[in-house]
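Extended Data, panel c. Modelled sequence:
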Amino acid sequence: MLLITAPQLGDLGDLLGTGAQLVTIAAVLLGALTTHLTNSFMERSRHKRELQTRWDVKKLEAYEGYIDRIRASVFLAVQLYEHREGLRESTHSEAEMLAGILEASRLRGRAFERIMLLGGDDVVEAAHSLNAVSLKVDWQATGKITGTLEDWRERNRATFRAINEFHDTARADLGVSGSVSGEQHPERDLLLPPARQAEN
């Protein structure tokens, strides 16, 4: 039979007390480590969300600016074309209108570069397609290519279809639900004055 003496019991008590202290210290360290890791993860997540929001804002500005430049270019081309074809008088000279188209083209190119830097793959492709069709509007207005009035109108229709396609891809890239084309949004034709609609 093993007899434990009083001094041995004291040593056992000290040992148990030391073990309990070690367990407490380990628990405190584990708690501190868990808190640190949780805070670090939450901080990284917050930073990532802020970064995503910042880039989404930049993308939205780039997409909006690009469409604005495309529309401005088309508007100037329409003014020049209608003046040259005798459809509408302009208060600006042809040289002024040509200079306006040239400047609009330069600004459109800069806006396109922002799309190349910030846009997703589908948005970049939609922008390339939009560039290709909208340039034909400029070219017919400036006389670089020829065409009938119906060719002119079809080039404008194609540009606005491409703008809608760009809108759809940009919305998807930004995570905006819905679309601007499709079954719920039937394709709309050019808005022409009543007298000109008869020519269609």
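DSSP finds five helices and no strands in the chain. This feature is highlighted in the accompanying rendering.
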